[in-house]
Write a structure and sequence with these properties.
Layout (H helix, E strand, L loop, with lengths): L4 E2 L10 E2 L3 E4 L3 H12 L6 E5 L34 E5 L3 E5 L4 E4 L2 E4 L2 E4 L3 E3 L11 E2 L4 H12 L4 E4 L3 H12 L4 E4 L12 H13 L3 E3 L4 E5 L2 E4 L4 E3 L2 E4 L3 E3 L17 E2 L11 E3 L4 E5 L4 E4 L3 H16 L14 E6 L2 E7 L6 E5 L7 E7 L2 E8 L2 H13 L5 H4 L12
Parallel strand pairs: 3-4, 3-9, 4-5, 9-21, 11-18, 12-13, 12-18, 13-14, 20-22
Antiparallel strand pairs: 1-2, 6-7, 7-8, 10-19, 15-16, 16-17, 22-23, 24-25, 25-28, 26-27, 27-28
The protein binds flavin-adenine dinucleotide.
C-alpha cells in the first residue's frame, strides 16, 4: 500500500487517509459508471474497480436481445480504464467487508479503502429443485447468453418460466429463432408485479400474436432434463428451460458487516446513496433509496438507475457530502423490447389516483398515464416515444394535466396541461 497522504470525501471523521482511494465492488453498469463519473468530476485519487466476472465489463440489456440472437458478438463498455487511471481487477470476488479497519476481503487477500462503493447488482432467483438439471438456464450474465445462443440456433421447443420483462424478451428472441415457446406464469397475468391487470391484459395478448403459448396461473412442480411438470399435472416437453422469475440484490457477502439491509435484501441507502456505515456508498440494482418524490423507498432494477445513481455517488465523494450535491431522487425510467414493440416506462404509479389511456391498447401504439393530485406521476408508452419523453419531463416538473386532454392521443402530452 502506498503511503502518500491524500484527503478523500465520504469519510465522516474527515481525517487524513493513506492512499487507498475509492474501491468499487462490482464491475457492472453501476460500478463502471461510478468509476468514470469520479474521473469526470475531477477525483484524482486512486480508483479500484473489482469485478467477480472474468470478462471485460459489459452492458446487460443486449444479452436478451442482439447478443442472444448472435446479432452482436458482445456488449463490452467502450471505456479505456487504463487511460482513466482506473485499476480494473477482474475475476476477483469480494467475500466480506470489515468496516472497522476499512478493508474488503477478496480471494486474493484483503484490500484497504478510504471510500467504498457497493455496486454488486442482483442475482437471478432460481427455480427450487432445478439447480444442476441439464438444459435449465438463467439469463443474467454474458456466460448465460453464450450458453443459450447455440441452444437457440438449434431451435428446440423452449419453456420459459416467468412472464416478466426478461421472460417476455427471451420468448421474443426464441420465437425469432424459430423455437416453439411456452411461457409458464404462476400469477394470473403477465407482469404481475409491474403493471395493473388492465394494462397487463393487452400486453399478455402479444404472446399469442407472436405464436408463443402463455399459461397463466400455472405453477411449476418440478423440472427434469427435457421436461417441465406443472402442479396441475400437465407435462411440457422442453429442449431448454429458461427461468426468469426475478432477481434479488447480491448482498449476501455483506452479512455481519454492519451495512444495513432491507427485507428485500437491498442495501438501504440514504438519499445521498450512503449506507449505514461511514464511507460506504451503494448504487444500482443492489441498493434501495428513499424517494421523496414518491414518498417511499424504491428498489429499481433498471439500467437508467445504474447510470444516474453513480453520478450522485461520485458527486458526494468528490464534494465530501456537501449539501449542494443534493439527494438522489430520480424519475425512474426503463425500456423493454418485446414482440416487435418498444415499451418504455417512466415514473412510479404506486399511489396514483387515476389511470388514463391514450389510444387503443389493442392497437400497435398506445400509452397509459397515471395521475396523482392532478399531476402526472408515471407513463407507460408502447411505440410512442414522444409520450415517454414529454411525460418524463412533466413528471419531473410535477405539472398538473387535464385528464380529458391526456386521453386524446392526438394532443401532445406537453400540451395537455390543466
Ligand atoms: C438480460 C437482461 C436484460 C436487461 N434489459 C434491460 C432493458 O432492456 N432495460 C432496462 O432498463 N434494464 C434492463 N436490464 C437491467 C439492467 O441491465 C440492470 O439494471 C443493470 O445491469 C444494473 O447494473 P448494476 O451494475 O447495478 O448490476 P449488475 O449489472 O448486476 O453488475 C454487478 C456486477 O457485480 C459483480 N459482483 C457481484 N457480487 C460481487 C462480489 N461479491 N465481488 C465482486 N463482484 C461482484 C457481478 O458479477 C456483476 O458483474 C436487463 C438486465 C438483464 C440481466
Amino acid at each position: 500500500m502506498a503511503h502518500q497522504v491524500i484527503r478523500v470525501g465520504g469519510v465522516s471523521e474527515q481525517t487524513e487517509q493513506t492512499q487507498s482511494g475509492v474501491v468499487i465492488v462490482g464491475a457492472g453498469m453501476a460500478g463502471v459508471q461510478t468509476a468514470v463519473a469520479l474521473r469526470e468530476q475531477g477525483y484524482t485519487g486512486p480508483v479500484t474497480l473489482l469485478g467477480a466476472e472474468p470478462h471485460q465489463p459489459y452492458d446487460r440489456p443486449p444479452l436478451s436481445k442482439a447478443v442472444l440472437l448472435g446479432k452482436a458478438e458482445d456488449s463490452a463498455f467502450d471505456v479505456d480504464f487504463e487511460a482513466l487511471g482506473i485499476g480494473l481487477r477482474l475475476g476477483v470476488e469480494v467475500t466480506g467487508l470489515r468496516a472497522d479497519v476499512r478493508e474488503v476481503d477478496t480471494e486474493a487477500g484483503p484490500l484497504p479503502y478510504d471510500v467504498l462503493v457497493l455496486a454488486t447488482g442482483a442475482r437471478p432467483l432460481t427455480l427450487p429443485g432445478s439447480d444442476g438439471v441439464p438444459g435449465v438456464h438463467l439469463l443474467r450474465t454474458l456466460d448465460d447468453a453464450a450458453r443459450l445462443r447455440p441452444v437457440l440456433a438449434e431451435a428446440p421447443p423452449v419453456v420459459v418460466v416467468g412472464a416478466g420483462w426478461i421472460g417476455a424478451e427471451f420468448a421474443t428472441a426464441a420465437r425469432e429463432a424459430g423455437c416453439a415457446v411456452t411461457v409458464v406464469e404462476a400469477a394470473e397475468r403477465v407482469l404481475a408485479g409491474a403493471v395493473p391487470a388492465e394494462v397487463a391484459e393487452p400486453m399478455g395478448n402479444w404472446y399469442a400474436e407472436a405464436g408463443a403459448e402463455l399459461l397463466t396461473g400455472a405453477r411449476v412442480a418440478s423440472v427434469e432434463e427435457g421436461r417441465v411438470h406443472l402442479a396441475d399435472g400437465r407435462t411440457l416437453e422442453a429442449g431448454a428451460v429458461v427461468v426468469g422469475i426475478g432477481a434479488r440484490p447480491a448482498t449476501d457477502w455483506l452479512a455481519g458487516s454492519g451495512v444495513e439491509l432491507g427485507p428485500d435484501g437491498s442495501v438501504t441507502a440514504d438519499a445521498r446513496l450512503r449506507t449505514s456505515v461511514p464511507g460506504v456508498y451503494a448504487v444500482g440494482d443492489c441498493a434501495s433509496f428513499p424517494s421523496a418524490r414518491y414518498g417511499e423507498r424504491l428498489l429499481v432494477h433498471h439500467w437508467d438507475n445504474a447510470l444516474q445513481g453513480p453520478r450522485v455517488v461520485a458527486a458526494n465523494i468528490v464534494a465530501q457530502d456537501a449539501a449542494e450535491t443534493g439527494p438522489y431522487d430520480p424519475v425512474p425510467y426503463f425500456w423493454s423490447e418485446q414482440f416487435g414493440r418498444f415499451v418504455q416506462y417512466a415514473g412510479h404509479h404506486g399511489g396514483a389516483e387515476e389511470m388514463v389511456w391514450r389510444g387503443d391498447p389493442a392497437g400497435a401504439s398506445w400509452s397509459v398515464c397515471w395521475l396523482r393530485g392532478g399531476a402526472l406521476v408515471a407513463v407507460l408508452a408502447v411505440g410512442r416515444p414522444r409520450d415517454l419523453a414529454q411525460g418524463r419531463r412533466l413528471i419531473e416538473a410535477g405539472t398538473a394535466l387535464s385528464p380529458a386532454a391526456v386521453s386524446d392521443p392526438e394532443i401532445p402530452l406537453k400540451s395537455a396541461s390543466a
